[in-house]
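S1.2 Input.
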Amino acid sequence: MKKIGIPGDRIIHLPWGGPPCAPSPKPFTQRTHDIVFHGSLVDPPTEEEFLRHETAAGIKKIVVQVILRAADAVVEQGTAPTEAVATACAGADINLEKLSINHLSYLVVAVDVRSRAIRRERFLTAFTALPVHFFGNYSESFKRKFARATFHGKKKFSEVMEAVRDTKISLCENLNWWDNVHLRVTYAMANGGLVAAENTMRLARDFADMRNIILTEHPYRDVADKVREVLADPARGQAMVDASRPVYESRYRWSVTVRALAPFFEPLFGPDAASNRRRRPAKKKPARKKRAPRERSR
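S1.3 Output.
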């Protein structure tokens, strides 16, 4: 964020977390679904389609070209969207200091949305030959790429979690989540499942590939074979799940991750701001007015 001129004191890292571990999760061998991914995908347009659409909407061509260059850097090199925007603007002789916060926000969000759509499509199409259960909205052209997949459409979160509790391996791509994790990771682990995810600094720091997680990196050439390997050896899959739970319990539960926010909230709310010891006082119910007794009719 500092690359595009946002002061450091205005940047707050919000760590993600998840619920407590399920007390009695289904064993790996008894789970119905081999693989699940929950989340939708809008097919990313080609560069020509994107340029034509955005310019027709009134966006200047040079701005659209900045978005395309920056998104390409994020997708192919793993550059942070803010850094990619700063570099692309410099290459187009656009002075960041003259852009409003709204213009900067538009650029960064546009780059983030486009790059994540491209990388999500690449990640998921690594599993075209595997029996994946998809929960979310997908185009017909995307569905035709999968020989053994089941598309359930968009479901309520509670219905998706019911499927996750009955899933051996949950998938998660993590582009632009370098030092964080997505709920697809935390909720799968909390419910006794194994995770196959795009590597991040945080996952690499806390987990070990093929010991308590399945990790992969762009362009995802190895991930399908790793998943097949674990599915073919259920005892190994269960051992990996068992090895992931202590790490999740000690580092990824909401009760743990929220404490990282204490330094930001203590100046506002006191030293117990991020602690469950501080509770909001119960609201007093207003006293009910006594009604005057009615006279009985004679």
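S1.4 Remarks. DSSP finds twelve helices and six strands in the chain.
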